[in-house]
Each structure stands twice: as C-alpha cells, then as structure tokens.
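User: My instructor asked us to take a sequence, write out its structure as tokens, and then describe one feature of it. I'm not sure where to start. Here is the sequence I was given:
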Amino acid sequence: MKEIAMAGATVTVTDDNFEEVVLKSDKPVLVDFWATWCGPCRQIAPSLEAIAAEHDEIVIAKLNTDENPATTAKYGVMSIPTMNVYKDGEVVKTIVGAKPKAAIERDLADYLA
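Assistant: Let's start with the prediction itself. The structure tokens for your sequence are:
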C-alpha cells in the first residue's frame, strides 16, 4: 500500500491487488479501465495524471483491461475508457468515454476538496 501514499502519480492496479488498493482504501478511488490500443484512453491519461498530482484526497488508479480480465468482467466494463469511482468498497459513480480534464473534475466534484 506504499504506492497510495505517493501524491502526484497514478497507481497501477491489477486483478491481484484490486481489493487491497481499491476496495479497502480509506480514500475514494477513481479506477480508469483502459487498454494500450485505446486512443481515447491515451487521450485522457494526461488529465488523470494532472488530477492525481493536484488532488491527494482521491486516488487515481489505472487498470489495463487486457491484462486484468477478471476485475473488468466483475464490474461489467463493456467499453473503454470507463472510470469507476469506488468509496468504501462500492462503485458510487461511473464515467464512460473520454472527456476534457475540466469535465472529469466536474464529475468528481463530490470527491475533490
């Protein structure tokens, strides 16, 4: 769990560490479900990095859907990019599709200070 303490960088999550890093987090966690071949996923990556750098009250995590099919299937992710916000182990918000940083921040307003 050392990674979570690092402000300013996104955290990589996998099928193996999803429960520990995301579901047991004491902060809200935005999980970006993405893949290397997904253009819109690459488009939003800099925005998510910036949000991670600017806001330590939320964890920004990335899960590669190709490498982690169990978690992807468990949460019914059918298209990417999909961003789920988890709080207290539950999905509390889902954001689908590429958006500008300001729009993502508006979607996250309830979880940002």
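For the description part of your assignment, you could build on this observation: The chain has five helices and five strands. Try explaining in your own words what that tells you about the chain.
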